[in-house]
Write a structure and sequence with these properties.
mainly beta; 468 residues; disordered C terminus; 8-stranded antiparallel beta sheet; 9-stranded antiparallel beta sheet
């Protein structure tokens, strides 16, 4: 990676470009100030991945500050000069992990399990651009001091190391600027349903979700997940030696279309079969608005090393999805009373026979939800000032969370089909949600909370302080 070191161009500008990530090189936004103390943790740290095979594939792994309690980890693989990365890959995806201890250690170098999950998104072997991303729920300070290393493996069935680097406490890394995040980052999630073609690995009916999360004015994190209740391996009766790869396609599921090449690349990452989260992310160089309105669909395929191309999970997205709060069975409009309470301004019931949902005009009233009903919450208080969330009986254990840049634990559940933006949230009240939810709350102001109960079933699970 010596080509990254040049006296004529700032390393802070060049590294993000090599990663395929457009980052501002001024001192504004969330970037690192030029006068940053050398002892502090910057908003970006990059490490060189050294080639370990005759193929000569190298690259970088980069930690990005994503917020006070989370980080983005991106991987970018490079072919030797003059060679085609896609031809070297030959369609084989490459699992990537954070391992314990340094590359020189012989013992206790397994994939990290604690204090975070060390599985990163596998690199898609069918993409000409070997990039991938993963959001990890630990601050960059923890990653910067972690005693570990990163391995890129040859394939799911061949765990030989393709490229590797020490990280954190074992390597200084290259300091740089962070992403210039937009204010009030938006997200939206689309359901992915089982395709009639199914697949030979996941031959049972498997669903999933694809989630768009706004990062900068021109970048969106796209994450797809499979509803396997664990790894792909755990959902099958035999060891899986192929990854699951994703693409954004033109047109609709019903009419079909090619992988998007313009105005953005539709190649997503790969899911390694041992990944316990069964998910993969990639930063797409397109704005959230462009992706959220793009008339396309997502296909998830079995990996193609042995010719298996059937899309076993797919779903329409963006301009083809047609999912708005106007599609909700029940719409509840809420507003704030200062920082002390929510107030319900109105309730509109359509498409269902729903009993009394809540009391209009009352502060912090109970919400009575019915399983199987789709609800829209219009948050007139605004996400930037009063993010709406539903949580368990434990304070701040959020299940659905409108707060920009943050996620609730059930937002990727395809049956809930959670959608959020600045104006509110939409979700289906499933039994899974009913079993865990106890309250709704403003994530910024603890006194703005009220009970959630399942209609006909009394208060739902959990107990706690405040309005529970």
């Amino acid at each position: 990676m010596d080509a990254f070191r040049t006296p004529t161009l700032s390393i802070f500008c060049l590294l993000p470009l090599a990663l395929g990530v457009l980052v501002g090189c001024d001192s504004g936004g969330s970037g690192m100030d030029e006068g940053m103390d050398e002892g502090s943790v910057p908003d970006q740290i990059s490490y060189d991945l050294a080639a370990q095979t005759d193929d000569g594939i190298s690259g970088t792994v980069t930690f990005w500050r994503n917020g006070p309690n989370s980080s983005l980890v991106t991987v970018d693989l490079d072919a030797p000069d003059g060679q085609d990365l896609e031809k070297i890959f030959t369609g084989v995806s490459h699992p990537v992990h954070i391992h314990n201890n340094s590359v020189s250690d012989d013992e206790n170098v397994g994939i990290v399990q604690d204090p975070f999950n060390g599985y990163l998104s596998a690199v898609n072997g069918r993409s000409a651009n070997g990039t991938t991303a993963r959001k990890i729920d630990v601050p960059i300070e923890d990653l910067a001091s972690f005693n570990g290393h990163v391995n890129v493996h040859e394939s799911p069935g061949n765990r030989n190391v393709l490229a590797q680097t020490d990280i954190g406490a074992n390597e200084n890394g290259t300091r740089g600027q962070g992403l210039n995040f937009v204010d009030d980052r938006r997200t939206t999630t689309y359901p992915l349903e089982a395709s009639p073609t199914y697949g030979s690995v996941l031959s049972d009916v498997v669903s999933g979700t694809v989630r768009f999360e706004e990062l900068t004015d021109s970048q969106t994190l796209v994450t797809y997940s499979l509803d396997t209740d664990g790894s792909v391996n755990s959902a099958t009766s035999s060891t899986v030696e192929v990854a699951q790869i994703g693409h954004i396609h033109e047109n609709t599921v019903e009419n079909g279309g090619g992988i998007v090449s313009s105005p953005f690349s539709g190649y997503l990452g790969s899911i390694a079969p041992t990944d316990p989260a069964a998910r993969s992310s990639r930063i797409i160089n397109a704005s959230f608005d462009d992706l959220a309105t793009y008339p396309g669909y997502v296909n998830i395929h079995e990996a193609v090393a042995d010719g298996r191309r059937g899309a076993f999970v797919q779903g329409n997205i963006g301009g083809n999805a047609g999912e708005t709060r106007s599609n909700a069975d029940v719409t509840i409009t809420v507003d704030n009373v200062g920082n002390s309470a929510w107030e319900v301004a109105g309730v509109n019931v359509t498409n269902v026979s729903q009993g009394d949902v809540t009391q209009v005009g009352k502060e912090n009233p109970n919400f009575a939800f019915e399983v199987g009903t789709r609800y829209g919450i219009v948050n007139s208080a605004g996400r930037s000032a009063h993010p709406f969330a539903v949580e368990t009986g434990t304070d701040e254990d959020y299940l659905l969370r409108q707060e920009s840049g943050q996620s609730g634990s059930l937002e990727d559940d395809s049956n809930i089909n959670y959608v959020e933006d600045e104006e509110g949230v939409t979700f289906t009240y499933t039994q899974t949600l009913a079993d865990r939810v106890a309250a709704y709350q403003c994530t910024f102001h603890g006194s703005m909370e009220g009970n959630v109960q399942t209609d006909g079933g009394g208060d739902s699970g959990g107990s706690g302080s405040g309005g529970y």
